[in-house]
């Protein structure tokens, strides 16, 4: 382990009153509360400890890097999905890009906080470099910090969408969810977003260079109550 | 090396189940999504799927062999 923290995601219950109806429609029984968040293994104490926002920020400050498990790496991935498909494991905080030969490039991600997670099958509708961020009306309504950017925040290092954005579409309709970069790389591995998938800027730039518009995106999130595209 | 406190099946095994359900049921694979999973023993995961509105249960081993697909 050589002083490096190991990561463990924990399943997250995602509830959303608006989407409860959708869950019923799917015949799903709401899953009892599953522990949220991520755990890391501290080799010094040999104990698994909660990896919350405060600890993640301290780790990043000390190492100028996310824990090793969240850095890009090629892994074995047995699948019938074609190369170029994106598969997101929201519980484990991993994004896989399917490669030839039953392998995948794996990246660490941050996902929706409790109540903002979702699952489904969508596609990459379009991509943008250093995109403008325009908060959705509902975010403007609930988040005072978003109000000043209601008209759109130009792309740049402080922009919440970071270096690239992959806009996720359900058929020809924008889902409002994106896979994007972030100016807060220490949040990788956490449940922090409003439903978007966030990656380190270097990682989203690498992913965008490997992905084509139209690519299938499968989002797995155990306990999610909102489903897209299925 | 990683673990989950509430252990879910690896993403690739969940999707192997989805593929098996598509073949067994004839439901379009774009309408099949794993919705929950758990580890039954050291070599077996159970994956629950929504297949076009029908709940289906699948067993898959750690080698990627789907051993069972049946209505939940």
Write up this protein:
- The complex is a heterodimer of chains A (230) and B (72).
- Chain A is α/β, with parallel strands linked by helices and 230 residues long.
- Chain A has a single domain (6-228), classed as L,D-transpeptidase catalytic domain-like (Beta Barrel), CATH 2.40.440.10.
- Chain A contains five helices and 15 strands.
- The longest helix of chain A is centred in the N-terminal third of the chain and has 11 residues, at 53-63.
- Chain A is globular, with a radius of gyration of 17 Å.
- By secondary structure, chain B is of the alpha+beta class.
- Chain B has one helix spanning 11-25; strands at residues 32-41, 44-51, 54-61, 66-71.
- Chain B has one domain (11-71): Nuclear Transport Factor 2, Chain: A, CATH 3.10.450.
- Helices cover 21% and strands 44% of the residues of chain B.
- The mean pLDDT of chain B is 91.
- In chain B, strands 1-2-3-4 form a four-stranded antiparallel β-sheet, covered by helices on one side.
- Chain B is globular.
- Classes of the chains: A alpha/beta (230), B alpha+beta (72).
- Chain A binds chain B through residues 1, 6-11, 26-28, 31, 34-35, 39, 41, 48, 69, 76-81, 87, 89, 91-92, 94, 96, 104, 119-121, 218, 220, 222-224, 227, 229-230, and chain B through 1-6, 8, 10-16, 19, 30-37, 50, 53-55, 64.
Multimeric state: heterodimer
Largest sheet of chain B: 4 strands, antiparallel
The secondary structure category of chain B is alpha+beta
Distance from first to last alpha carbon of chain B:
32 Å
Secondary structure layout:
The complex is a heterodimer of chains A (230) and B (72).
Chain A: E1 6-9, H1 20-25, E2 38-42, E3 47-50, H2 53-63, E4 73-76, E5 86-89, E6 94-99, E7 103-108, E8 111-112, E9 119-129, H3 137-142, H4 144-147, E10 164-170, E11 173-180, E12 191-193, E13 197-198, H5 201-210, E14 216-220, E15 227-228
Parallel strand pairs in A: 5-14, 8-12, 9-15, 11-13
Antiparallel strand pairs in A: 1-2, 2-3, 4-7, 5-6, 6-7, 9-10, 9-14, 10-11
Chain B: H1 11-25, E1 32-41, E2 44-51, E3 54-61, E4 66-71
Antiparallel strand pairs in B: 1-2, 2-3, 3-4
């Amino acid at each position: 382990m050589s002083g490096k923290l190991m990561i463990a995601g924990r399943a997250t219950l995602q509830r959303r009153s608006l989407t409860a109806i959708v869950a019923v429609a799917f015949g799903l029984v709401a899953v009892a509360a599953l522990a949220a968040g991520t755990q890391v293994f501290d080799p010094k104490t040999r104990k698994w400890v909660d990896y919350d926002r405060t600890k993640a920020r301290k780790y990043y400050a000390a190492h100028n890097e996310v824990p090793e498990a969240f850095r890009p790496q090629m892994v074995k991935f047995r699948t019938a999905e074609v190369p170029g498909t994106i598969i997101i494991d929201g519980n484990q905080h991993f994004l896989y890009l399917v490669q030839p030969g039953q392998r995948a490039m794996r990246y660490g991600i941050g996902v929706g906080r409790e109540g903002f997670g979702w699952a489904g099958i969508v596609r990459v509708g379009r991509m943008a470099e250093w995109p403008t961020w325009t908060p959705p009306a509902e975010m403007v309504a609930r988040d005072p910090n978003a109000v000043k950017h209601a008209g759109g925040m130009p792309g740049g290092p402080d922009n919440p969408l970071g270096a690239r954005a992959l806009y996720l579409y359900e058929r020809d309709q924008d889902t409002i969810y994106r896979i994007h970069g972030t100016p807060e790389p220490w949040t990788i591995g956490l449940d922090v977003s409003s439903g978007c998938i966030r990656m380190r800027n270097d990682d989203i730039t690498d992913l965008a260079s490997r992905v084509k518009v139209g690519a299938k995106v499968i989002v797995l999130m155990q306990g999610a109550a909102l489903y897209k595209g299925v | 090396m990683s673990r989950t406190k509430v252990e879910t099946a690896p993403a690739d095994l969940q999707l192997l189940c989805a593929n098996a359900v598509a073949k067994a049921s004839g439901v379009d694979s774009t309408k099949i999504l794993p919705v929950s999973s758990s580890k039954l023993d050291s070599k077996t995961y159970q994956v629950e799927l929504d297949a076009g509105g029908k709940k289906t249960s699948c067993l898959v081993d750690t080698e990627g062999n789907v051993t069972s697909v049946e209505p939940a």
